[in-house]
Amino acid sequence: MLSIERKSMSKLRKLLFTDLDGSLLDHHNYDYSAALPAIRALRAQAIPWILTTSKTAAEVIELRAELDNHYPFIAENGAGIFWEAGSVLPQYLPKHGSVQPWGKGFEYVSLSRVLRSELLQLASSYKKQLKLSFIGFSDMSCQQIVECTGLSLIKAAKAKQRQFSEPLLWQDSEENLLKFQKALEPHGLQLIKGGRFVHLMGLSNKGLALQWLAHYYHQAWSQPIETMALGDGYNDIPLLEASDCPVIIRSPVNPRPKVNHPSVIVTQECGPLGWNQAVLNWLEQK
Length: 286
Description:
The chain is α/β, with parallel strands linked by helices.
């Protein structure tokens, strides 16, 4: 359980938000061992580090247990914010969204206004109407997801347990992707490019989720907050732009996202190596 004390306004408190694939986790093998020194330093200073990802809640819960991370987390590109039941102080939660139970011992708030069933129906309709070529997670077998991602079969099954969004393996042109996006806009839907997939979802994003949790911690701590965000892809742009200290993690495969922020940093190393150095540098700052 998170224990949060209300203290004086004299000290600036730090709060970290991190993307997973390609950032904390190596793009090719999902290894995070190079980031362990910074993770230990975060624990030593009791700084919350919020896993912020396109992954599902089922995937993140497994990983956060492995990482011994007990803080809230952000799933499906900011559409859902989850935490262990009883680990947050409800009186300081932002008013947006109602708290719902999830799984065994978790709660969440949805920042998405479109049901996934509606989203899937629209995707199917426009795929036929615009003669688009793509395949969504809902139409893929676990084995197909394994082949696309390198995940194990068990992890692929958890990746299919989506509540708010639909990853699409895009097999069409950039021009048709723009046509699809334009058709979806009146329905309150968007397409967000991730490292491997295009994500069809409502108008939530990682940046809005950061602001939601930063508001919570500011109220609960009664102290000013400095946020750091780390990410490597296009879907991380809202997260990076919403933070005080944005860090672009250099990618071995993806072009650098264009982040509009006066203090943006780009790491020298890729993946968890770059992540580790950036976090340690930030923790050394007073």
